[in-house]
Amino acid sequence: MTKIRILIIEDDKFLIKLYNDKLTRAGFDVSMAISGEEGLAKVVNEKPDIVLLDIILPQKNGFDILSEIILNPDTKNIPVIILTNLGQESDIKTGLELGAADYLVKTDFSINKLPEKVKTVLAARLKK
């Protein structure tokens, strides 16, 4: 069985390393991007199985990236989990309305649950 490929788009170098370590240890194949532009290019070129996306990013914000992923016929079926510090109701609503598979607020979410969350979202996507 091929490894599940995850793309993490996160500009916090400490957090991206933390997520990478956690997910790599859980058996995932992880790719990383630290800016919006780089992240979007990797989504299009690598077509990961799932994307973990921060909202506050240099060059292009996460909501714009999510919109572009959803509007692109080649990438629209890739589930995106938003993982951000923006916990306001309006931001969560925006993220989910734009098509995010899930919206996680970093301060409310344990990194230890990340591999399980990825599996849950992918399992739900397979049932569709």
What's the arrangement of strands in the largest beta sheet? Answer: 2-1-3-4-5
Distance between the termini: 21 Å
Biggest sheet layout: 5 strands, parallel
**Can you tell me the overall shape?**
globular
User: Helical percent range?
Assistant: 40-55%
Mean pLDDT: 95
Task: Identify low-pLDDT runs.
Answer: none
* Backbone structural class: alpha/beta
Question: Proportion of β residues?
Answer: 15-25%
Q: What Rg do the Cα atoms give?
A: 13 Å
Secondary structure blueprint with pairings:
Elements lengths: L4 E5 L3 H13 L3 E5 L2 H11 L3 E4 L8 H10 L8 E5 L4 H10 L3 E4 L8 H14 L1
Parallel strand pairs: 1-2, 1-3, 3-4, 4-5
Helix pairs in contact: 2-3
Task: Report what the structure shows.
The chain has a five-stranded parallel β-sheet, with helices on both faces. It is of the alpha/beta class and 128 residues long. Strand 1, helix 1 and strand 2 form a beta-alpha-beta unit. 45% of the residues lie in helices and 18% in strands. It is globular, with a radius of gyration of 13 Å. The chain has helices spanning 13-25, 36-46, 62-71, 89-98, 114-127; strands spanning 5-9, 29-33, 50-53, 80-84, 102-105.
Based on the model shown, name its key terms.
128 residues; alpha/beta; 5-stranded parallel beta sheet; 18% strand
How would you briefly describe this protein structure?
The protein is of the alpha/beta class and 128 residues long. The protein is built from five helices and five strands, in the order βαβαβαβαβα.
